[in-house]
Amino acid sequence: MYLSDTIQVVDFLDKYASNSLVTAVSRSRGGTLVKLYGSSEISGFFFHLKDKIIIPVKNPGAFPKEAVTRLEEGLRSNFFGKITAFSVMKEFGKVVKIETGNLDLIIPLFAGKSVVILDKSGKEIWRDKKDNGLNLLEKPMNDFPLTFENPLFWESWFVEKSDKEQGEEKRKKLEEKRNKILTSINIVKEDIKKHEENLAKFSEFAALLKANLWQFDSSEHKTSVILTDYENKEKEIKLDPGKTLLQNMERFFANIKKAKNGIENSGKRLNALSEEFEKISSIDELPEEPKSVFKQKKKQNEHIPYHEFHATDGRVFLVGKEDKDNDELTFKVALPHDIWFHAKDYHGSHVIMRMKKGEEPKQKDILTACALAILYSKAKKGRSGEVWFTARKNVTKRKGMAVGLVNFKNAKAIYITNAKLPEDLVKV
After folding, report:
1. For site-directed labelling of 370, which of 109, 286, 399, 418 has its Cα 20 to 30 A away?
2. Burial of 232 (0-12, 13-18, 19+ CB in 10 A)
3. How confident is the model over 294-338, as pLDDT tens digits?
């Protein structure tokens, strides 16, 4: 993607995705997908630092989820709210700036530079990795014609390119798997050969020693004995001097059994490998690895302990689902500087309002959190009641306290009447 392509796409995003709400961030196809709510033209945008591209997305289903990296974790925690503008910082090269009411997301589309989130004063909130920051270009980048007239073509182009690369990667893995099986087959064949040699050797030793044991004191210790074999030739048989002649003979018979077991087991392994090789040689793609029953059950039983709400200015509210979820939300999810809310004298959900360290809460956000506390409690029917709130660090739980019950200090209280959620509050 040339600088001209980047500018074209970013202008398109600025026209059709400004005023959209960030609803989700996920990893896909080696890059990052940001889903948006509020645009009639697209569902989000995707950027890929290795391929140095940013593209509009109409079909998020073409971007299957992958395990998130530090980049996606950082964006989930720090970049949210309504997007107000997209632009290209051409003085630095292919650097995209995405603005919200409170934050700027800086995405350098070239190697070695970090994705950064800044507040409006330019103070750094978060960065993907350590680097020396952006440098102004000494001379403008070369001007190339646009790759596509319609910026929406980038999505199908990238998906097709990604599918092709994944296909090649799958074929490479298939070939590696075949070679690995062939190597294993050769190793097993060598093992069988060694077992057969041991079987012949120890069978001869055991038979000769057994046939001639009468000539010796079976309790003797010797380093070797010279015996006449069946072709009337003398053969020296090495012995373990730490064992008696009888024990050495028993050792030979044990080695015979071991060799026979080795031949049998290696033969079974060889048959299994040969069948696997024939099977894998008849397919063009490796099948998906079966997931363990434990992992499947874990995924099926995966439980998020809270409902999540986003305001258009980016404020995030979390509402506990059940008593045990309240404990998990308050003591495992919430941060010390977040604000905790609960309807006084009513059984109900703990509500957490996400806050930045040192940030002062706005009155409208406090009222929204109080409304959530009322509407997610037994006070919901009357839509009125008193709500306690305090910093999460002031909430504690003594050992042995019932699920959902807590102690707190330094709380303030607000009486809410006719509790109602703002129209711009979106449940994610």
Report:
1. 399
2. exposed
3. 445 545 556 889 999 998 778 899 999 998 999 999 999 999 999
Pairing type for strands 395-396 and 407-408 reads: antiparallel
Identify the CA nearest to 276 among candidates 347, 182, 366, 202: 182
- Which amino acid appears at position 27 of this protein? R
Residue 12 tokens, joined: 């398109």
Structural domains for the chain: 3-151 (2.30.310), 169-281 (1.10.287), 306-427 (no CATH)
Contact assessment for residue 321 and residue 306, using Cβ atoms and an 8 Å cutoff: yes
Of 209, 206, 239, the closest CA to residue 222 belongs to 239
Amino acid (1-letter code) at residue 390: T
Q: Is residue 69 pLDDT above 50, yes or no? A: yes
Integer CA distances (angstroms), 177 to 171, 184, 260, 278, 287, in order:
10, 11, 30, 12, 12
| Buried b / exposed e along 278-302 (16+ C-beta atoms within 10 A) | eebeeeeeeeeeeeeeeeeeeeeee
Q: What is the C-alpha end-to-end distance of the chain, expressed in Å?
A: 33
Residue 380: partners with Cβ closer than 8 Å, 6 or more residues away? 374
Give the helix/strand (H/E) hosting 316.
Answer: strand 316-320
Question: Closest Cα to residue 344, out of 379, 319, 317, 318?
Answer: 379
Is this structure's pTM higher than 0.70? Answer: no
User: What's the pLDDT tens digit per position in 7-58?
Assistant: 999 999 999 999 899 999 999 999 999 999 988 889 999 999 999 999 999 9
The C-alpha atoms of residue 316 and residue 352 are separated, in whole angstroms, by: 8
**Which tokens in the block code for residue 247?**
């024990």
Coil vs helix vs strand at 252: helix
Long-range Cβ contact pairs of 147-150 (< 8 A, separation 24 or more): 147/1, 147/2, 147/5, 148/5
Question: How many angstroms separate the CA atoms of 29 and 6, rounded?
Answer: 19
Beta strands 234-238 and 412-416: pairing type? unpaired
